[in-house]
Design goal:
Shape: elongated
Order of helices and strands: EHEHEEHEHEHHEEEEEEE
Strand order of the largest sheet: 2-1-3-6-4-5
Radius of gyration: 20 Å
Strand content: 25-35%
Helix content: 25-40%
Oligomer: single chain
Largest sheet: 6 strands, mixed
Length: about 250
């Protein structure tokens, strides 16, 4: 199953217009809103430390083995242009085909909820550290201009919509089902013999990521067709629902 490094802004000094808050505050609210939807959809994640720097986030990301590094930010105009710009940018490293593909999925999803979809775009960059210096494919999102009244208000009033959009786009990128929520239930593997294969997606042609024995205790996160998305230990995956007894 995919695992991402989730890196909301640590820039507490970037104030939103009209005293609406800060970039760090709202991007962490967004990450908070994403977490239960990521769990519901089977995407594992590690999150940065908001009390540290972007450089520390890069080091933490590079210390792991992630399928995507996703940085959440809001933008600000250059000197003399405060409040004059709007739009969303998904930055990726020009040499990363997977980073570009992820950026396209994320931007396309945001076009469906941002009031000016023509102002949502992807853009390659070699100057942003969280795109250039991480080992994993990376996308840094600038989710509107926080010095623009319309964009700032849109951000603070669309946290849940953005969270759902971003996770939906991630499931499309990784090729797994999207679930907006979950009601976890305890379950137990029931087998007469052999082992139960655990798959990274609901597809028997995929390579199993683990095997479970009769009596193994699991948590059922969601159901998809004849499959259960389960958590077992610190792992998640798909199993044939017929072999799980839900309590």
């Amino acid at each position: 199953m995919p695992i991402i490094f989730l890196s909301p802004s640590t820039q507490e000094y970037n104030a939103y217009v009209n005293d609406l808050g800060t970039e760090e505050e709202w991007m962490n609210h967004l990450a908070d809103a994403m977490e239960p939807i990521l769990f519901a959809s089977g995407i594992q994640y590690t999150r940065n430390d908001r009390d540290q720097t972007a450089a520390a986030a890069i080091r933490a990301s590079n210390a792991g083995n992630y399928d995507l590094h996703l940085a959440l930010h809001s933008n600000a105009s250059g000197e003399g242009q405060a409040g004059q710009n709007q739009g969303i940018i998904a930055f990726y490293f020009p040499g990363s085909a997977r980073g570009m593909r992820a950026a396209q999925f994320l931007a396309n999803g945001l076009k469906a909820i941002y009031p000016q979809p023509n102002l949502v775009r992807t853009e390659p960059t070699t100057t942003i550290g969280e795109v250039r210096r991480v080992r994993a494919p990376a996308v840094l999102l600038e989710l509107g201009f926080h010095d623009n009244e319309e964009d700032a208000q849109w951000i603070v009033s669309h946290i849940q919509a953005m969270a759902a959009s971003l996770v939906l786009s991630l499931t499309e990128y990784f090729g797994i089902p999207f679930f907006p929520s979950s009601t976890p239930m305890p379950g137990e593997v029931r087998l007469d013999l052999g082992v139960l294969d655990v798959y990274p997606r609901p597809d028997v042609d995929a390579t199993p990521i683990a095997q479970l024995y009769d009596g193994a205790q699991v948590t059922v996160i969601n159901e998809y067709a004849d499959w259960y998305l389960i958590q077992f230990g610190d792992q998640v995956g798909y199993v044939a629902a017929e072999f799980i007894a839900v309590e």
